[in-house]
Write a structure and sequence with these properties.
The structure is a homodimer of 326-residue chains. Chain A has 12 helices and 12 strands. By secondary structure, chain A is an alpha/beta fold. Chain A has one domain: NAD(P)-binding Rossmann-like Domain (Rossmann fold, 3-Layer(aba) Sandwich), CATH 3.40.50. In chain A, helix 1 links the parallel strand 1 and strand 2. In chain A, helix 1 packs across helix 7, helix 2 packs across helix 4 and helix 4 runs parallel beside helix 5. The radius of gyration of chain A is 19 Å and the shape is globular. The relative contact order of chain A is 0.14. The mean pLDDT of chain A is 95. At the A-B interface, helix 4 and helix 5 of A face helix 4 and helix 5 of B.
Chain lengths: 326, 326
């Protein structure tokens, strides 16, 4: 981890959920960190996320859709963590063009900018399991076909493919990690168009009645955000991963009902099971859990925080900070 | 084929290579045909292509990047053949943003327009083998991983995925056909940034010295344009193909040297073998031929014109029309 000392690091989406947790770690490791965030109102950027490192990193408020600014931001950087994105699957269907601009066009534009302004940079990209679509077998490994079921998945896959092409043709080292359900402190809890995890955590803390869609038996795997940050850090200098896309995930799976049961340990709320609303049903992927053994074999990484401990820390973080997050 | 009589048909890229050949067939079959073409100077649109049907179809000069015009063009249509595209792999690397606008954004914009203005339309999309990347096995079937090696392949794959998502979520019937090397009358022969087929045919007719990159042993399969037009027509009303992407191809493969040998029968020219230029080498896919048996099983389609007969007709078409095409 000493490799990060004095490295010039750019984190896109740096005030968001995973970006800010990564930023805190990198500042602690002695890196020279610049955060870029668009602060789009319905997105994850939140100044409260970087409270522990205010004054020890640079914050640049800008949108990755602005290519000209990006050209200056990438210059001289050693590492770029590309965590900015439109993350709502539902929003990608109701406003597909915005998803295209942020999750597709801006990724290509970032690579073009790096090719011209920072050809020696290393890039790490936060991708998603969503690009697999409905699993044909479980757990889903990297050989599984990619058949995205929504516009968000189409664009994340296109972005991964850009990174692979720019690695192959221009030699820019790019690694994509396909994230499963990530949760933890600094997660976006506002709104009801992100994944269920944030919505459930917020409602549990507020003591509201949680509605579970379907029958509650859908299986998922979860990664606590610190484990995901670790994964990005260990992937950074593994040259043999360049140009590849690898799964994160967890060997332990939970049904949505089991997830809610864990939440009940820390919060006082009720829950009920309701039928899927049609707009969710149309893009639901059924059971999903990932096989991350390829990434583990390459790097030694494995998740260390289980859901019980992770949700405990999450509730502990958010309970006194509700006013800052929703 | 009587199903096409009086159908209201929109062909995007209708003055281009495959679009114009399709238009001529559809007019002969009694369809009510509207052609849309941007007439971009380096692209395939050419008024000479539709000389046989001038006055028997509608021509609308416009660019599919213009969403507002598209909204009016799709209204009331029964069938849309989506053949417009940026087709140069090399150009997709030197000007990736234009490739994105045409091959990715405009496809999403077309689907959004259909969803709002023509929800009952059937869509057929001209996709490409390029999205497979370098083959891991041969012949390449539809289960082969999709690992595009250039930006063009990334975007064609994204477009296919849009069509599959819009079929699944909104019920719009969309079929993608993954074309291999298509050749024949009305092909674009200008410039040197398209595939080798057009370049070789033009140089052969002009008696120029053809340069073959590599060792000339790269294997390819070829489809004569009339066979490709047939494939789009038979796919149109096969409901079980909706939402899917299927290969075209040919059971007969030729090396580039064999291809040039066939050309020698009809034209007087010389050829030589030269090393790959680096920008071509970087995105070359090696041997490639497709397994189209899934499409054959579903529809009964198979290619009928072999390369010998197809190139004879191609040279016969272009020789007296050189001035109209280059």
């Amino acid at each position: 981890m000493d490799e990060f000392r004095d490295r010039k690091v750019l984190i896109l989406g740096g005030l968001g959920f995973i970006g800010s947790n990564l930023a805190i770690r990198l500042v602690e490791l002695g890196a020279d960190v610049t955060l870029v965030d668009s602060m789009l109102p319905q997105y994850g950027g939140n100044l409260a996320n970087v409270e522990p490192i205010l004054g020890r990193c640079r914050i640049n408020f800008s949108d990755i859709r602005d290519r000209h600014g990006l050209d200056y931001l990438v210059r001289g950087k050693d590492l770029i963590y590309n965590m900015a994105g439109q993350t709502s699957h539902i929003e990608s269907m109701t406003d597909p063009m915005t998803d295209l601009e942020i999750n597709c066009r801006s990724q290509l534009s970032l690579l073009e900018s790096c090719r011209e302004n920072a050809p020696d940079v290393r890039l790490l990209f936060a991708s998603t399991r969503q690009l697999y679509g409905r699993p044909e077998y479980l757990p889903v490994d990297e050989d599984h076909p990619t058949r995205p079921v929504d516009v968000n998945g189409v664009h994340k896959l296109a972005a991964e493919n850009y990174f692979a092409v720019y690695h192959r043709v221009y030699g820019i080292p790019c690694v994509s990690l396909r994230l499963t359900n990530t949760y933890g402190p600094r997660q976006q809890l506002r709104g009801d168009k992100q994944g269920f995890v944030g919505i459930f955590v917020r409602m549990a803390i507020d003591g509201e009645r949680i509605r579970i869609f379907g029958d509650g038996r859908q299986l998922r795997d979860f990664n606590y955000v610190d484990d995901v940050v670790d994964a990005f850090l260990v992937a950074t200098f593994h040259d043999e991963l360049a140009g590849r896309a690898l799964n994160l995930g967890s060997p332990r799976r939970y049904s949505l009902l089991e997830f809610v049961d864990v939440l009940h340990r820390y919060c006082d709320f009720e829950h009920e099971i309701v039928p899927f609303p049609p707009e969710h049903q149309a893009i639901d992927i059924g059971d999903f859990y990932a096989d991350s053994s390829r990434f583990t074999e390459a790097t030694g990484w494995r998740p260390r925080i289980d859901l019980e401990e992770g949700l405990r820390r999450t509730v502990e973080y958010f309970r006194p900070r509700a006013g800052l997050y929703w």
